[in-house]
Amino acid sequence: MADPMCGSGTTLVEGVLAGDNAIGLDANPLSVAISRTKCGLLRVDPGDLIDVYEHVRDALLDLRLGNRASSLIHFKKLDDRDRGYLHAWYSDQVLVDLDTIIQVISSTKEGALRDFLRISLSNILRKVSWQKSDDLRVRKEVRLDVEIDPIREFLEELGRSVRLLLAFLRQNEGTPVGSFQVIEGDARELQRYWEEWRGKADTVITSPPYATALPYIDTDRLSLCYLNLLTRPEHRKRDLLMVGNREVTERVRKEYWSFFLDHRNILPKSVVNLILHIERLNRQHEVGFRRHNLPALLSKYFFDMRQVLCGIFQLLKPGAEAFVVIGNNHTLAGGKRVEIGTAKFLGDIAETLGFKQGAPLAMQMLVSRDIFKRNAVGSESILRFRK
Ligand SMILES: C[S@@+](CC[C@H](N)C(=O)[O-])C[C@H]1O[C@@H](n2cnc3c(N)ncnc32)[C@H](O)[C@@H]1O
Asked: Which residues sit with their C-beta closer than 6 Å to ligand 1?
């Protein structure tokens, strides 16, 4: 099975557990790291997990009592611009503690367990920073009155994850698991990354971003920088690759819009009519920059998703199915509420590419990260496309 926008690897994990060969791709390096780690952990021996956990816990508890790292070995290896950026988000003491943790992690054997420790560290990076915790955006709130203790936070986070993982591994002991491969890449160019799998996938299961997507790269900035997964200067460029990206300059907006006007005939009429309708309503009223950008961004989203679906079509075996989890949206245009029926539109696009649509499966929205709740829509559906 394949997931070309695998995020944190939910579908890949299920694929591996079902004994499949699971392949995943994502443009966000943190998502790739999390997916690889989760799939890699499915083969770990519970005894090795306990040994590594105890080693790390004991080393950190010792260091916490006295000799925290005196030199910032990891931090000093980062790019200058990343260091400057991180200095703005962490106190000096927190940077020392984070270095202590990452030095202990680096002393463990390379492999899934070390990756697991790094992801556990990633999970606390927002909490020990001056980033407001209840906000998807990176907004700052310097808290000099609060004691921030990264080592304690890390050990709590790690302890929690180890307990969950151990329970799972013990229950699953003896069950054969499949293989996996997760790579970083742009889902709009699937054919290029997965040339070797062309016409070979039994199933694709994926949940693409919504039409007005979440700021994936932005939300993960601190982890991307601190774990040296993507340097600061690369963030903006990477944002532009993200399907559903909504951060555009006026110049880029104009480019998207003129591309839409020149190429709209390759999109289904339903999609073109909606975009033109929103543009017309907005033009007749004074609207802020987000609403002004929406028609161009929506057109970009549907062109991008068309390319992704085209890649999925080529990847599948004849007769095989793709399952696409998607939610609808709405916007206010010219004072009117306009529904953006993304699920229907993706179905229309899929049909123009040669897919046959089956009846969609209804599903209750699963919100795994509380801070996403505010941006969530009420329900999602699972679209079924057969090649
Ligand atoms: C809704 S999330 C997927 C969630 C996933 N099912 C999970 O279990 O975490 C959408 C994913 O699409 C990825 N994405 C956005 N644009 C992409 C692109 N051009 N190429 C590859 N992945 C992309 C995002 O990084 C994000 O991880």
From this structure: 5, 7-8, 10-11, 25-28, 31, 186-188, 207-209, 216, 241-243
- The total domain count for the chain is 2
Q: Which atom of ligand 1 is nearest to the CA of 25?
A: 21
- The alpha carbon of 210 and the centre of ligand 1 are apart by a number of angstroms equal to 10
At 239, which helix (H) or strand (E)? helix 232-241
Residue 183 β-bridge partners = 25
The greatest distance separating any two alpha carbons of the chain, rounded to the nearest whole angstrom, comes to: 68
Whether the full predicted model's pTM is greater than 0.90, yes or no, is yes
What are the pLDDT digits (tens) for 168-179? Answer: 999 988 888 999
| Residue 381 placed within a domain | yes
Domain boundaries, position 301: 243-386
Distance 299 CA to ligand 1 centre (A): 19
Nearest to 211 by CA among 120, 144, 99, 299: 299
Testing ligand 1's pocket by substitution, the residue of 26, 186, 219, 326 carrying the most ligand atoms inside 8 A of its CB is 26
CA-to-CA dists, residue 265 to 133, 178, 269, 270, 311, angstroms = 44, 43, 8, 11, 20
Q: Which atom of ligand 1 is nearest to the CA of 188?
A: 19
Mapped onto helix, strand or coil, the DSSP state of residue 121 is helix
What does the pLDDT read at residue 130?
85
> What are the pLDDT digits (tens) for 135-157?
656 666 666 666 789 999 999 99
- Chain segment 252-262, per-residue pLDDT in tens: 999 999 999 99
| Residue where a domain terminates, one of 172, 187, 208 | 172
In a domain, 276, yes or no: yes
Residue at 215 is within a domain: no
| Backbone angles phi and psi of 170, in degrees to 5 | -65, -40
Q: What is the pLDDT of residues 15-57, one digit of tens each?
A: 999 999 999 999 999 999 999 999 999 999 999 999 999 999 9
Q: Is residue 225 part of a domain?
A: no
